[in-house]
Design brief:
By secondary structure, the chain is mostly beta strands. It contains 1 helix and 17 strands. The strands form 4 sheets. A 5-stranded mixed sheet has the order 1-6-5-9-10, with no helix packed on it. Strands 2, 3, 4, 7 and 8 form a 5-stranded antiparallel sheet that branches. The chain has a 4-stranded antiparallel sheet with strand order 14-13-16-17, with no helix packed on it. A hairpin with a 7-residue loop joins strand 13 and strand 14. It is globular and about 55 Å long.
């Protein structure tokens, strides 16, 4: 059973039911192949040519991809952005031919590093307040330039919103898993389906930025991932073991993603096992 619930850190319009519907309905449109994070302190080479969406083939694999999500009020053009993430070795979304909406990456001197058009995702779902018809979801993944100082979203060259890139990357200190079920010491990483699994973590940021976290789960050694929780400020979660797909060998693990709004760190837990689901006849 894939976990599809989204727990959002939000205010105002983000807390509406229709946004959750939008997020769940369209989250599959952006696929990420998440590799291990590499927080290098080396200064990037910023003396290079800029990129545009037309310079890059669709679905090309990039070393660093910026994942951006937000909600646009179509009547007022007010855009509320969620924390962005830099994901290594990810595919980016197809680039449309029109340039009505663009993601612009600029350096510290406001020089353009990349301009990437994107399409809005218009919901066809209805909610009790019919608000979804007046809003559109932004869900895009574009190549990221390490010299980026600001991420700007525009509509017809008008600035809708922006995110500033702080100097330092978050640092995940640890991610630990456990259970409230008594297990043999020899099988300490074998968690019964009846057990509650706890995941604890901690992270810091030299800039003092507030961090948000997303937690993923894999039962195939990291080939595929399901979202457990998104955009939370909590540093712990307790989940029933029966919520997860299992396996017969130690191929299960969690992945923690920490973001300060743009800069991102990623860390995996140790491998563990949950017995596989059995089909009843």
């Amino acid at each position: 059973m894939a976990i599809t619930s989204a727990h959002l850190i939000c205010s105002g319009i983000f807390c509406s039911v229709f946004f959750t519907i939008l997020l769940l309905a369209y989250s599959s449109q952006v696929s990420f192949i998440l590799a291990t994070s590499n927080n290098s302190d080396l200064e990037p080479d910023c003396d290079k040519n800029n990129m545009t969406g037309t310079d890059i083939e669709m679905n090309t694999l990039q070393d660093k991809v910026l994942s951006i999500r937000g909600l646009l009020d179509l009547s007022s053009s007010k855009l509320e952005l969620m924390p962005s993430m830099i994901l290594p070795s990810s595919e980016f979304t197809p680039i449309p031919p029109n340039r009505t909406f663009t993601i612009n990456l600029v350096d510290k001197d406001m020089n353009e590093l990349g301009i990437f058009p994107f399409n809005l995702i218009i919901s066809t779902a209805n909610d009790s307040n019919n608000k979804s018809k007046d809003h559109a979801l932004i869900s895009a993944a574009v190549p990221y330039d390490s010299c980026t100082a600001r991420v700007i979203l525009k509509m017809n060259d008008k600035v809708l919103a922006y995110q500033t890139v702080s100097p330092h990357v978050p640092d995940i200190k640890f991610i630990k898993i456990g259970t409230d079920f008594n297990v043999d010491e020899e099988d300490s990483m074998l968690f019964p389906r009846a057990a509650n699994i706890t995941v604890d973590w901690d992270a810091g940021d030299l800039d003092g930025d507030n961090l948000t976290y997303s937690l993923l789960y894999s039962n195939d050694g990291g080939l595929t991932w399901d979202t457990v929780i998104d955009y939370t400020t909590s540093k712990s979660i307790r989940v029933p073991g029966d919520s997860f797909q299992g396996n017969t060998v130690n191929l299960s693990k969690f992945r923690l993603i920490a973001t300060d709004n743009v800069n991102t760190d990623i860390k995996d837990s140790d491998f563990f096992s949950i017995p596989a689901l059995t089909l009843e006849h």
